[in-house]
Amino acid sequence: MKYAAIKYTDIANGPGVRTSLFVSGCTHHCKECFNPETWDFAYGNDFTKEVEDAIIESLKPAYIKGVTVLGGEPMEPANQQALLPFYERVRAEVPGKSIWIYSGYTFEELTDTGYKRAHTDITDKILSLADVLVDGEFKIELKNIRLRFRGSENQRIIDLPATLKNGEIVISEYS
Ligand code: SF4
To answer: Is residue 81 part of a domain?
Structure first.
């Protein structure tokens, strides 16, 4: 997997001060996407173990609340494969830090076993490791600059542990 950028001490993509990883590759091609260079799966730099190490190290200070993974599309099947070991490392090595994932796919698409564009045999595992999924494509006609942590009205900030426990969508307190 390639990644386009890493932002340390980011306050725009989730609560508190975070490290944000912008991965490469996205097949949604939303109109007026904020990051069209990341559509190309070959854009940017290799996501190596050294890069993972640097991100994990950045999460260690007490004032860092967690990591946010966005793009690009972290839930493209190829990117899921590359990111699952990283999420497992975050959980094991920096427990207590939150994991936010932004996806153009909806929760329903990601959990639909018949939706082969996004659902893989590891998708459920990834969703069980993360705290929040901000879901849905960016829709320019629903753009609202007053929204916090999302760009358009259709997108939802989903509390994943509560959603998976209840069996229905639970919107995060951060909405
Ligand atoms: S899902 Fe995100 S990165 Fe992909 S086209 Fe839409 S806004 Fe851009």
So the answer is: yes
Condensed to tens digits (0 to 9), the pLDDT of residues 104-129 reads: 999 999 999 999 999 999 999 999 99
pTM for the whole structure = 0.98
If you measure from the C-alpha of residue 40 to the centroid of ligand 1, how many angstroms do you get, rounded to a whole number?
Answer: 11
Q: Which domain holds residue 88?
A: 2-166
C-alpha distances out from residue 132 to 95, 120, 162, Å: 15, 19, 10
Residue 175 maps to a domain: no
Tell me which residue has its CA closest to atom 7 in ligand 1. 33
CATH of residue 80's domain is 3.20.20.70
Residue 112 covered by a domain:
yes
Burial of residue 146 (CB within 10 Å: 0-12, 13-18, 19+) is exposed
